[in-house]
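Journal club prep — side note

Before the paper discussion, L.F. wants everyone to see what a predicted structure for a comparable chain looks like in token form. Sequence:
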Amino acid sequence: MRLLRIWVPESKAPGFDAEARRQAALLRGAAEEREALDFIEAAADTNA
């Protein structure tokens, strides 16, 4: 195993909540959202 560092947005920064809600609203109901969620569910399925 090796250390992996990634930069992520600061969730306590001013405006973070509003931007997260804005981006979620853009994806709500989009085909891309369903595809991404299906992929995540398949990848997380450890019983398969």
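L.F.'s comment for the group: The mean pLDDT is 91. Keep this in mind when we get to the figures.
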